[in-house]
Amino acid sequence: MRPIEVIFYIEGLSNDKKALESAMGQTVESLKAEKGVEIKDIYVDEIVEDPDNDLLPYSGMIEARIRGPFEVLVDLAIRYAPAAVDLVSTNGIEIPAEQLTKILGGVSYLMGQLMEKFGPLAAYPKLDELPEPKVGYSREEIESMIIDERMLLYRFVVEVYGEDEKRVEADIKKALMYEGCRINKFAMQQQGENEKTGRKRFLVATELISGIETAFQLTGKYAPVAISVVEPEIVDLNPSEIQGVLSDLAGFAHELVIRPLKAMAIEKANTSFKLTR
Prior knowledge:
alpha+beta, four-stranded antiparallel beta sheet
């Protein structure tokens, strides 16, 4: 696979200047020690102070120019959670379905770890108003979507929770449609129930058709217990799709890791309001 070159913009925030300097230095050394990629350049901005920010007045930015295989950059985008990613390369890439399955499995594992620590990502507006999604497509329709629309056919297994089985089934189907997926097959089975809360755990097995970016977004949001790319045998990604995948995954990871900071800011704002009203 042809290597890709990107720029990661990794943001640092703190209420202690020396602690931030140390953390940014450790991040730089960690990047330099990464295997499987070439760190072409690293620039560390001077730490700036915002006197109007009582909670986290100090901020800094690391700009890292990195060259390496797509699968390694996907891993780094999640682990370093850059605030922004710029794609430098102008070439596309081709990935065998088996290798893409492994990459998506790695995304599921890493995002699952983050969500266990910081909470879930998937959130939707009211789904009641959405129409019931179609389930099942002909072979001709699937081939047309793969060839003409550059979509993937993949199996996606995820755990979901709820009290009413019919409502859970309706909601997950609509959520998948909302994400941009077409559902070819759908099966759901109850796996357990919390006696205290009445919430049930369901295993949902689907066969989905979507674009490559949607497949990565869905994997990042749901951290499926299993995923397998069925068709096509070779998946090609253009530069726009590469940029989108890396930016989406970095954005998901960044959103999760800064949640504690957002919670602190909200708590401080609420406390201030209570004290001054």
